[in-house]
TrEMBL record:
GO biological process, one term: apoptotic DNA fragmentation
Protein name as catalogued: DNA fragmentation factor subunit beta
A Gene Ontology molecular function term of the record: hydrolase activity
Subcellular location: Cytoplasm; Nucleus
Protein encoded by which gene: DFFB
Assigned keywords, A-Z: Apoptosis, Cytoplasm, Hydrolase, Nuclease, Nucleus
Gene3D superfamilies (alphabetical): 3.10.20.10, 6.10.140.170
Role according to the record: Nuclease that induces DNA fragmentation and chromatin condensation during apoptosis. Degrades naked DNA and induces apoptotic morphology.
Cell inner membrane in keyword set: no
Provenance organism: Leptonychotes weddellii
Any GO CC annotation of this UniProt entry: cytoplasm
Keyword Cell membrane set for record: no
Annotated InterPro entries: CIDE-N_dom (IPR003508), DFF40 (IPR039729), DFF40_C (IPR015311), His-Me_finger_sf (IPR044925)
């Protein structure tokens, strides 16, 4: 079909440092370029057009093969564009100190965007840059505390309480298992649970795990409050690189409640029954409650995981039989008294 019977090609065009797009139609690459330069008041000499998506330069041979309404970028002499990655790089460079201009630009892009994937990416970006991470108190960030009791005055205080609540629930499970233990061993089992309870109280139920103000070795997040998924129980890392900052805004705080402290060696299926069995079959030996404590309540056996990385399958891992009982100390032999010469 000759060009005479063709309709003019239509595009959405913008300049490199402008978020404004305008519709343009033309019969040739040169015509679209000239219209674009006139609209953005840029010199035609040295300017060129490329696809926003991947940076491919638009030439006369390629012109008619490009789908209608494709997004084009107008580049002047010396300017380069590598596609989406260039936009991402520019946004990331401003990511740590987002300002009104960045947020406004992203909002403008989102309002014009039709592609679902890019809508999602822009919405997520706006969600992230709009976070008030640095704020800590209720007075500094009232929306973050919506729906929470008035007694919570700081973000760290609430998240510490959130972690403590999880650990307390594990303790309740361990304690309730006493009813399953045989009568002869039940008293000793309850005594060990009481010892663990005192240890947890002293450690403030390990609430520091979620507290960004805690010492580096006692928390699972950065000093800014960023948590990274530690991956499923059978992997060393998270392949999806999940991360979240519940200190940022209310939505992130709510979403963080779906993250799990997952027991690598399973609490209900393995650790608690093993503790009960150890007490029942101790036969004069002393149960190493510290070992079970570490498996039940500490990061030695707990992994913080995104809900998608929380595998509900049987872990098929067992307690270390060498650590269930404390080493028995042999009584020292008395040397026979030396007779006086």
């Amino acid at each position: 079909m000759s060009a005479v019977f063709r309709k003019p090609k239509t595009f959405r065009l913008r300049a490199l440092h402008s978020q404004r797009k305008f519709g343009v139609a033309g019969w040739s690459c040169s015509e679209v370029l000239q219209k674009g330069c006139r609209h953005f008041q840029l010199p035609v000499t040295g300017s060129r057009l490329c696809l926003y998506e991947d940076g491919t330069e638009l030439t006369g041979d390629y012109f008619w093969g490009v789908p209608d309404n494709s997004e084009l970028l107008l580049l002047t002499s010396g300017q380069t564009w590598q596609g989406y990655v260039s936009d991402i790089s520019r946004l990331l460079s401003a990511f740590h100190k987002p300002h009104a201009g960045l947020i406004q630009a992203a909002q403008q892009l989102l309002s014009d965007e039709q592609a679902p994937l890019r809508q999602k990416l822009l919405a997520d970006l706006l969600h992230t840059v709009s976070e008030n991470i640095a704020a800590e108190t209720r007075a500094e960030d009232p929306p973050w505390f919506e729906g929470l009791e008035s007694r919570f005055r700081s973000k760290s205080g609430y998240l510490r309480y959130s972690c403590e609540s999880r650990i307390r629930s594990y303790l309740r499970e361990v304690n309730s298992y006493a009813s399953v233990v045989g009568v002869e061993a039940r008293e000793e089992y309850s005594r060990i649970v009481d010892v663990m309870c005192r240890e947890l109280r002293a450690a403030q139920y390990n609430g520091s795990y979620f507290d960004r103000g805690a010492e580096a070795g006692g928390r699972l997040c950065s000093s800014e409050g960023w948590f990274c998924c530690q991956g499923p129980f059978d992997m060393d890392t998270c392949a999806s690189k999940h991360s979240i900052n519940p200190y940022g805004n209310r939505e992130s705080r709510v979403l963080f409640s779906t993250w799990n402290l997952d027991h690598i060696i399973e609490k209900k299926r393995t650790v608690v029954p093993a503790l009960a069995e150890a007490v029942t079959e101790r036969d004069g030996r002393e149960v190493a409650w510290e070992y079970f404590y570490s498996l039940l309540f500490t990061s030695e056996n707990l992994k913080l995981v995104h809900i998608a990385c929380h595998k509900k399958t049987t872990h098929k891992l067992s307690c270390d039989p060498r650590r269930i009982y404390k080493p028995q100390t042999k009584p020292k032999r008395r040397r026979p008294a030396r007779k006086c010469q």
